From TrEMBL, chain B:
Residues 13-257 form the ABC transporter domain. PANTHER family: CARBOHYDRATE TRANSPORT ATP-BINDING PROTEIN MG119-RELATED, SUGAR ABC TRANSPORTER ATP-BINDING PROTEIN. One of its GO terms (molecular function) is ATP binding. It comes from Agromyces agglutinans. The keyword ATP-binding applies. InterPro entries: AAA+_ATPase, ABC_carbohydrate_import_ATPase, ABC_transporter-like_ATP-bd, ABC_transporter-like_CS, P-loop_NTPase. Pfam families: ABC_tran. Keywords: ATP-binding, Nucleotide-binding. Transmembrane segments: none annotated. This is ATP-binding cassette domain-containing protein.
Amino acid sequence: MSHTTASPSPSANRTPEGEPPTSALDLAEEFLDRTTPLSRIRSILHRYPAISPAIVLVLAIVVFGLLNERFLNPANLSLITQQVAVVGTLAIAQTLIILTAGIDLSVGAVMVLSSMVTAQATVHLGIPAVVGLLLGLLVGLGAGALNGVLVTRLKLPPFIVTLGTLNIFIALTLLYSSGATVRGGEMPDLLTWTGSVIPLGGVNITVGVLMMLVLYVVLALILQKTAWGRHVYAVGDDPEAARLAGIRVNRVLMSVYLAAGAILAIGAWIQIGRTNAASPNAGADLNLDSITAVVIGGTSLFGGRGTVWGTLLGALIVGVFRNGLSLAGLDVLWQTFAVGVLIVVAVSVDQWIRKVRK
Amino acid sequence: MTIDTTTEREPILRARRLVKTFGRVVGLDGASLELYPGEVLAVIGDNGAGKSTLIKCLTGAEVPDEGEIWLEGKPVSFKRPQDARDAGIETVYQNLAVSPALDVASNLFLGRELRKKGVLGSVFRVVDQKGMRQRARDELRALGISTLQDVTVPVENLSGGQRQAVAVARAAAFGSRVVVLDEPTAALGVRESNQVLELIRQLRERGIPVILISHNMPHVFDVADRIHVQRLGKRAATITPETHSMTDAVAIMTGAATE
């Protein structure tokens, strides 16, 4: 005989109408309460990974402000934001890729290639600046597409893929430009517009800095509010789980690399304004600097955890340390030393935070 | 052979004579299965008996070489897991397809997020966070999972049983016609296992038929209405906890008895 009737078997937890039924699962609640103050701090940091870089940034500003009164000068603060603008923009692209548990060593090279194509096409071929910028955008998208295809189709580790394309893009840049710098004076005003200054209550903000900030706002909204944003986190967290939940993992990865490419092209524009030139030798260290900003900003290299706001804080921390230490009269090597210490501390904190997972 | 051919009810899910080979290895050798509305059907079998392949064919993870599958009287053919999902067959995988860093509500709606109304939702694909959280709370309450009322907690902060509850709730939450649970208690302790068994009963009370794959005989006999015994790529028998003992079931599984 088969038991195919729909009549429910007597259940232990029938409750009166209207009240939510309680089940044995309630008992599991005590698992959550077994915490110490330290583990509670860890849980909070785990949930809001941008807290620790925010604390570090505030402390750094206070300490450097006390060490040297010139540090808190509006002109100096404005300089820091300008110094951060390019790496801060590249770090947005880097954050997207690291959130998917990838890494992009080619961000700097893509940016330089994009800036050289824009500058040379505009200056030497005499095409309109807008078209030059669109060409630069195409370069960024093309580079992103190449990285994305290699990662999703050939299933190569992003580290290896972008190590390869890093060299390819550097070589292409030098071949294309013959190693020559295009000076800002030769370019149409639109290309160097990102370097122009907007006075904002005593602090001089450049258009490039504003563009970077707008990008942060836009990307933060996209990551938090859209289905795509959630899918980026899910793919970085556990690609197999994401796939089983019906997310097209390769499509998400591909869109992330394309979005990163577009952001790098905007970074190229900001770079031209910032240095008032397009140089094939600029930005050699920007790949590592962008990773530094992301890591210090509390985004996990293992993917699935972090925010672009943390990355902005990370980029600002690096800028503040470099500027503050230089104002304090220390050798430039000590700046590098300090950044190294920051990275190691940030990754250690991340490892500790990740232990929340049982 | 089977003991439920006399029933007059239409099975909600029926597989007939499924064959699946992997090279020279025969995974399924003419396996059949019927799942009736409102029941918990356990699938048991020794390792290599083909229960996992059978379930994969039913949920679209594998495509059978031969045989037919009907859902609610209509023939279906699943090429991908998503096809089975779209048809209303929800699977809770052994490795729990949850995203640890996302919160409970986001996990319930992962891959099918509710969007905001208007341009924001359709063009910019902005999700309706509030709506998802409210619906997540309702679904969990309906399943009697009151410890998970805070749907903003990341799943990684939950215990194993609670995570399983999230996965089960997700499977049950979207008007699904059939829920398949693959070894849901394998990684859990005694108490957490009981919580999951309780959840399975809740699903049955809501009228959702459940296929439960399990190695754990006490769990199977505790919760199942009928038990499908798989052996050598075929159905050896379908028994009930009332008519057969665990020893009988093991005997059929190992071939020592036929029914």
